């Protein structure tokens, strides 16, 4: 019998029951809750007179709707001007109180984007099944977890039973070997992968990211890559556990201690694909060939190396792509063949669950140190992923680097990643953004998003347009 993939192992270890039609019941170790996708789930529980099955498997924090402006934030929930947003955040507080679920609320220093908070607290640990009513839950796969987003009715199901009905996906290996060039970051790797396989490339698969590039990559970098598995069509993205994973989780507040730690490490050390494991699909990319990437269009697959011009219709692979590109040129206000450096940038956003961890902020600060944001940029903002990331960055003096350069230093939350709070683009504005989605209207009605790494966003803010950070 062939060996098992990491995904097979995680699946088998959590399988409660399999039916003849292939549908399975799997056990869920951790559920993260935020204000947008939990209200109906709690309401369902309440109507049915149920209680959560395992209270301490759940953890909640508001992130999408919270203001990132210091003055607004200092007022707590009252500082949220939009009624719907305020009600959602308040409802999360009330539900967590009523059901006795631990919440890092808007005033708690541990509050932040769920996908930053879970790993930071050691609530995400290797080998766990992790779910959240949020498509970017794959982020946690960086720890060798089986992690994916679920819908609101499933949130209720997990609260009530700690189980989930699932069908097993196929196995895909994306192997990136070699060594990344200087100035090429995990974000560039994942954007290059999506450019290659497309936004449907991973549909139906659980993706394992393997090869030297991921072995060499920091845990934070692995989170950035796994975060965007969903943008490649896969609900699950993961990386095998290694010494770095174990060192990263050690001493986190919720990590196991003493004897339990040793037992956990023994188990975690088995969480990698066997040498003779068989994948249903394998994609190979040469790491050394990856350049800093910039998205030019309205889908995360419309991505090019910074050295290339916006593609022309002659480069499209078929009629469907020609139509998509034609519409994208129009929405983005670009012409085919145009140099990326000619795109006038209005705003720069460094943040989101893709790139708001300490390492991301350090990478941006490194580029910015001692320089100034270009006068043509209307707003450049840095939004740490959690209160603790903010604290850490301040302890390292990064906030000063940003503020002296002309960046705004904000309070933690999803912010300008999506237009669910006060941080938005105006129609027609171009934004260099470290987030993960560049759909039409994603950052505000008519807004034009260009996905980049923190280093590329920082360089763009200083230059006023896209530049190759390797020569900046
Ligand atoms: C609001 C939430 C359900 C959504 C998601 O599922 O990902 C959001 O986080 C996003 O990034 O689009
Ligand atoms: S930061 Fe963006 S992608 Fe991440 S959870 Fe928030 S809205 Fe979704």
UniProtKB/TrEMBL annotation:
Alphabetized InterPro entries for the sequence: 3-IsopropMal_deHydase_lsu, Acnase/IPM_dHydase_lsu_aba_1/3, Acoase/IPM_deHydtase_lsu_aba, Aconitase_4Fe-4S_BS, Aconitase_4Fe-4S_dom, IPM_dehydratase_rel_enz, IPMI_cat
Sections of the chain in a coiled coil: none
Cofactor: binding details: Binds 1 [4Fe-4S] cluster per subunit.
Keyword Transferase: no
Binding site for [4Fe-4S] cluster: 353, 414, 417
Classification via SUPFAM superfamilies: Aconitase iron-sulfur domain (SSF53732)
Keywords, sorted A to Z: 4Fe-4S, Amino-acid biosynthesis, Branched-chain amino acid biosynthesis, Iron, Iron-sulfur, Leucine biosynthesis, Lyase, Metal-binding
Domain Aconitase/3-isopropylmalate dehydratase large subunit alpha/beta/alpha: 8-464
Cofactor(s) required for function per UniProt: [4Fe-4S] cluster
One Gene Ontology MF term: metal ion binding
Pathway this chain belongs to: Amino-acid biosynthesis; L-leucine biosynthesis; L-leucine from 3-methyl-2-oxobutanoate: step 2/4
Listed GO biological process terms: L-leucine biosynthetic process
EC number per UniProt: 4.2.1.33
Keyword Metal-binding: yes
Record's function text: Catalyzes the isomerization between 2-isopropylmalate and 3-isopropylmalate, via the formation of 2-isopropylmaleate.
HAMAP family found in the cross-reference section: LeuC_type1 (MF_01026)
UniProt similarity note: Belongs to the aconitase/IPM isomerase family. LeuC type 1 subfamily.
Subunit annotation: Heterodimer of LeuC and LeuD.
Record-given protein name: 3-isopropylmalate dehydratase large subunit
Species this protein is from: Alkanindiges illinoisensis
Gene (UniProt): leuC
């Amino acid at each position: 019998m062939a060996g098992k993939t990491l995904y097979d192992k995680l699946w088998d270890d959590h399988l409660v029951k399999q039916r003849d039609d292939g549908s399975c019941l799997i056990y869920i170790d951790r559920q993260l809750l935020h204000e947008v996708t939990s209200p109906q789930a709690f309401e369902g529980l309440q109507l049915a007179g149920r209680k959560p099955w395992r209270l301490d498997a759940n953890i909640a924090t508001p992130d999408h709707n919270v203001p990132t402006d210091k003055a607004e934030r200092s007022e707590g929930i009252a500082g949220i001007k939009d009624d719907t947003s305020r009600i959602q955040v308040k409802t999360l507080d009330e539900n967590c109180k009523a059901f006795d679920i631990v919440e890092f609320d808007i005033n708690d220093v541990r509050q932040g984007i769920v996908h930053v908070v879970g790993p930071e607290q050691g609530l995400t640990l290797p080998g766990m099944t992790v779910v959240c009513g949020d498509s970017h839950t794959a982020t946690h796969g960086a720890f060798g977890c089986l992690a994916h987003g679920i819908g609101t009715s499933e949130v209720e199901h997990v609260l009530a039973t700690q189980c989930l009905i699932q069908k097993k996906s196929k196995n895909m290996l994306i192997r990136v070997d070699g060594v990344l060039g200087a100035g090429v970051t995990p974000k560039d790797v994942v954007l290059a992968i999506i450019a290659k396989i497309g936004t449907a490339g991973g549909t139906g698969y659980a993706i394992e990211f393997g090869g030297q590039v991921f072995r060499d990559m920091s845990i934070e970098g692995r989170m950035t890559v796994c975060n965007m598995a969903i943008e490649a069509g896969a609900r699950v993205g993961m990386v095998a556990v290694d010494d770095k994973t174990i060192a990263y989780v050690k001493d986190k507040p919720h990590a196991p201690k003493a004897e339990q730690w040793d037992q956990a490490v023994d188990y975690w050390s088995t969480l990698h694909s066997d040498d003779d494991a068989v994948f249903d699909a394998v994609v190979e990319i040469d790491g050394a060939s990856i350049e800093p990437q910039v998205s030019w269009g309205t889908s995360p697959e419309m991505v090019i190396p910074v050295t290339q011009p916006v593609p022309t219709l002659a480069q499209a692979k078929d009629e469907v792509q020609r139509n998509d590109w034609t519409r994208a040129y129009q929405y983005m206000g670009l012409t085919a063949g145009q140099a990326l450096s000619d795109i006038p940038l209005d705003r720069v956003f460094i943040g989101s669950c893709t790139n708001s961890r300490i390492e991301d902020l350090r990478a941006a600060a490194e580029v910015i140190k001692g320089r100034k944001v270009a006068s043509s940029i209307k707003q450049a903002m840095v939004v740490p992923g959690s209160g603790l990331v903010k604290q850490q960055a301040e302890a390292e003096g990064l906030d000063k680097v940003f503020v002296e350069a002309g960046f705004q230093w904000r309070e933690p939350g999803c912010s300008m990643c999506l237009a669910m709070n006060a941080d938005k683009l105006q129609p027609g504005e171009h934004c260099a953004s470290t987030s993960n989605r560049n759909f039409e209207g994603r950052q505000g009605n008519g807004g034009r998003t260009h996905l980049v790494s923190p280093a590329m966003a920082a360089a763009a803010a200083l230059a006023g347009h896209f530049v190759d950070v390797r020569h900046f």
